[in-house]
Amino acid sequence: MLPGILFIAALFVYPCIYGIMLSFQTTKGVPTLSNYAKFFTDPYLRDTIQNTFRIALPASLFNVIVSVPLAMGMLQRPKASRWVNTLIIIPITLGTVLVAEGLLNYLGPLGWLNRFLLATGLIDQPVDVLHTYKAVIISLIITGFPFSYLLVLSYLSGINPKLGEAARMLGASSGQRFWFVTLPLLAPGLAITFCLAFVLAFSVFPSANLLGNPSGDSHVLSVAAAQAAFEQYNYPLASTISVITAVVELLIIGVVLGWRNRLFRGSTAGTKG
Q1: Could you tell me the pTM of the whole model?
Q2: Please, are residues 204 and 220 in contact by the beta-carbon 8 Å criterion?
Q3: How far is Cα 100 from Cα 136, in angstroms, rounded to an integer?
């Protein structure tokens, strides 16, 4: 275990401890809470928490909720699932920066989306989507949905199908089988999927810079930390924003996992119990 422990300590534990200690320092090197006070007393910095939630929460919920019916449909159609899974995984290979660059052209005034809507007569003038939080959410959905879908698909494939068949033999409809059999067994997995999707979306940076308005409604926590570090050269303040980001994420994860522990526990593959 020693090599693994040293690897984690070098790449995770030490940077975390160093960042936390740096957040209590000022430009004079004296440990204080002034950086935290500056963050919470400055409306422009404080609102980054709200801006980040406004972007990350809808994208995370959409990715998790839409993954469920799609994954259930793919389990019933194994031949079609090969092609669908391949198409869904493609955004993972591109990365967030390349996806954001592509959306700059796709969502632009002369992009494919506006050209199609204008050609079909659905709109009279180009839709202004770029440099708004909506474009950032679209980017997060494209890059985050594959992870949510693959996780939900793996959780669903682990549920014993005989449980649903038994409910059907007892007279349960398809809707009843989903709400009273599949969903309770899937809910703990959905909680984990949401946590991972939320952390991925909460740390948004390339999309907020390229597609959003970094000085306005897309001024998220990661953007504020980058501006403090590389524009103001205030590394203690940047570390403070990073620590606050981690604390907020841990609070949300704690709430979701606390709710998860109140749900079904045990194996979903067996028929006993």
Answers
A1: 0.86
A2: yes
A3: 8
